[in-house]
């Protein structure tokens, strides 16, 4: 078996409120293989977002080991973590966080330009991704002119723009109605598989989780393996 694209060992995170210490992550061991789509189940407040923030290298204060795409994250300085995040990770959040003054195609092109891609191939890549998500006719629209489902599709395209080996998605359909959530998730999973990326997808929706390759649950700060999805 190839090396995991994401691996954590004894990952811990605690918060102090006054005289009380709250342990959110209590020794999380996790491995995600290249191309694997893993659902991370848990109710609101269970620590799913905290775990994604840890493996997304978005904040400090964690104990334990995080290895991403063959690199030991805790051994890196701030610039090294930024570079690793930029080269190895794509993010999709519950709220799209698109740049409001930029069109759909510009929102997907910009991360590529920051990465150093030339403008023309960056634009071509953006068009291809957006078209694959059914937005070929909405390329020049700004977020305010797009529906909630369309905005989230743009966010998915943006996350995949730089071909990251790992996508981290935090309740990516949580802000959508049930029908739109089903459609967007199906398109997300299809495109991630087509691109060959792995994904760790946090959700509280067990029905949506079963559409992924493997399901794990965060319970009392530790992961419980629920195994592959049933046939």
Topology record:
Layout: E1 6-17, E2 20-32, E3 37-41, H1 48-55, E4 63-68, E5 71-72, H2 78-88, E6 89-92, H3 104-115, H4 119-132, H5 148-160, E7 166-170, H6 178-195, E8 198-203, H7 206-209, E9 214-219, E10 222-228
Parallel strand pairs: 3-8, 3-9, 6-7, 7-8
Antiparallel strand pairs: 1-2, 1-4, 4-5, 9-10
Helix pairs in contact: 3-4, 3-5, 5-6
Features:
single chain; 231 residues; alpha/beta; Rossmann fold; six-stranded mixed β-sheet; four-stranded antiparallel β-sheet; ATP hydrolysis activity; ATP binding
Question: Would you kindly provide a written description of the structure presented here, covering whatever features stand out?
Answer:
Pfam families: ABC_tran (PF00005). Keywords: ATP-binding, Cell inner membrane, Cell membrane, Hydrolase, Lipoprotein, Membrane, Nucleotide-binding, Transport. Belongs to the ABC transporter superfamily. Macrolide exporter (TC 3.A.1.122) family. The protein is α/β, with parallel strands linked by helices. It has a single domain, classed as P-loop containing nucleotide triphosphate hydrolases (Rossmann fold, 3-Layer(aba) Sandwich), CATH 3.40.50. The chain is 35% helix and 29% strand. The protein contains seven helices and ten strands. α3 (104-115) packs across α4 (119-132), α3 runs parallel beside α5 and α5 packs parallel to α6 (178-195). The relative contact order is 0.19.
Taking pLDDT < 50 over at least 5 consecutive residues as the criterion, the unreliable ranges are none
Tally of alpha and pi helices: 7
DSSP strand tally? 10
Give the CATH topology.
Answer: Rossmann fold
Strand content: 25-35%
The arrangement of helices and strands along the chain is: EEEHEEHEHHHEHEHEE
Mean pLDDT: 88
The helix content is 25-40%
Broad structural category: alpha/beta
Radius of gyration, whole Å: 17 Å
- CATH H-tier superfamily: P-loop containing nucleotide triphosphate hydrolases
User: Mind summarizing the main beta sheet?
Assistant: 6 strands, mixed
Total tally of structural domains: 1
CATH architecture: 3-Layer(aba) Sandwich
From the N-terminal CA to the C-terminal CA, the straight-line distance is 23 Å
Shape, principal axes of CA atoms: globular
For the largest beta sheet, what order do the strands appear in spatially? Answer: 6-7-8-3-9-10
Please write the CATH class name.
Alpha Beta
GO molecular function, one term: transmembrane transporter activity
Enzyme class: hydrolase
GO biological process, one term: protein localization to outer membrane
InterPro entries: AAA+_ATPase, ABC_transporter-like_ATP-bd, ABC_transporter-like_CS, ABC_transpr_LolD-like, MacB-like_ATP-bd, P-loop_NTPase
